[in-house]
Amino acid sequence: MKEITESGGLLCANCATPMHGEFCHECGQSIHSVLKPVHGMLEDTLDIVLHVDGRAMHTIPPLLTKPGFLTLEYFSGRRVRYVAPFRLMFVLCLLAFFLGHIALDQATNKISHAEATHGPSAPINAFADAGTTLEVKKKLDQQVAQLRLTREAVGSSTGLDLAEAALRKQAAQRTAELDGSAPAKASSSESDDGLVQLDEGDKKGWLFKPTHVDIAWLPGFMNARLEKGLQHMKLNLLAMKAKGEARDDAMERLKAGTFAVLPQTMFVLMPIFALLLKIMYIFRRRLYMEHLIVALHSHAFLFLNLIVGIVLSMLAAWLVPHAGNWLGSVFRLLEWALAIWALVYLLLMQKRVYRQGWFLTSVKYFVVGWCYLWMLFFALLFAVILGMAH
């Protein structure tokens, strides 16, 4: 693209104002024509990409390591070389939830693979073919040993304690049947296809009641939407009581629905967090927009911190099985360091931006943090409920 060296005598094509540079000082339109060869468009695209990358290189490192630096730069008017606060938070938010979804799928697949290999869940009629109490005890010891192997392979006891409790209950019931102290009955409430078989007492619960929503002050389409979501929630809850593909599909719907609404939930919390800062620092005579910039940069840092933590966790899952437990200790230390740095970072940021003493800053930091944790808890609970209705 050719450089503009002289614009005297030229008029803006949009508002006919005399031009004194490449852009009109009245309407902001560029002097360059949008009708250009394809190679010119490629040059412009490359320039935009490199410019954004350059701003990202100036933004990401201080965002992670310098509390309050970007906010103070923004307040001072030095904004061109940095990514805008909302765009920065938005991109990091989407990336954090995207990686979080992948990491959750990875952990779920690991547990499912270990269960498929070692059989951690209580099998149907696990002790039905046992003819003596000694045989029941032998089978129980074998099943518990498999559970222990699964714990070592997965590195977590998620769901395995419940499976062991179910096995011991089945063993005790079969032992009582062999001793003649209890009537024989099925040791599992599940059918051969893995679906939960509910008795008549269970079918009297709210899951089996007719679903009808009719709120007078809501429009019809909203009532229909709520009714459909409630029906989906009931079906998902019933599917989660099953085993096999039905339960896996329900969990996938729950995860997909929850992660789909989490970004919107965080965007709702953003102005509320800024309002908390406004209330805490009402005598500092700062505009609400200034508190909103602080909130945007704070959340951008938290999402960046979360991204680094997720990447470390995924690297640990990939490298530790090949390198040994010492590397796992290193990754755990780094993850703890990130969590502690997040708390320290936000305190230092609040101190540097609002310039108050340590005592007042600490008190306001804990008050805002306590209130925001409760709001975050209810927001996450709301997201899970919406995910259940997916």
Topology:
Blueprint: H1 38-65, H2 69-75, H3 85-118, H4 133-154, H5 160-179, H6 220-240, H7 245-280, H8 288-323, H9 325-354, H10 358-388
Helix pairs in contact: 3-4, 3-7, 3-8, 4-5, 6-7, 7-8, 7-10, 8-9, 9-10
What descriptors fit this protein?
390 residues, mainly alpha, 3 domains, disordered N terminus
Mind summarizing the main beta sheet?
A: none
Number of domains: 3
Helix segment tally: 10
Roughly how many Å apart are the termini? 51 Å
Query: Kindly state the mean pLDDT as a whole number?
Result: 76
Order of helices and strands: HHHHHHHHHH
Structural class: mainly alpha
In helices, the fraction of residues equals 55-70%
Number of strands: 0
**Which range does the strand content fall in?**
under 5%
The oligomerization state is single chain
Could you please describe the fold and organization of this structure?
Helices cover 68% and strands 0% of the residues. It starts with 37 loop residues before the first helix and ends with a helix. It folds into three domains: 83-109 and 245-390, no CATH class; 125-187, no CATH class; 197-241. The chain has ten helices and no strands. α4 (133-154) packs antiparallel against α5 and α7 packs antiparallel against α8. Residues 1-8, 118-123 and 183-203 have low confidence and may be disordered.
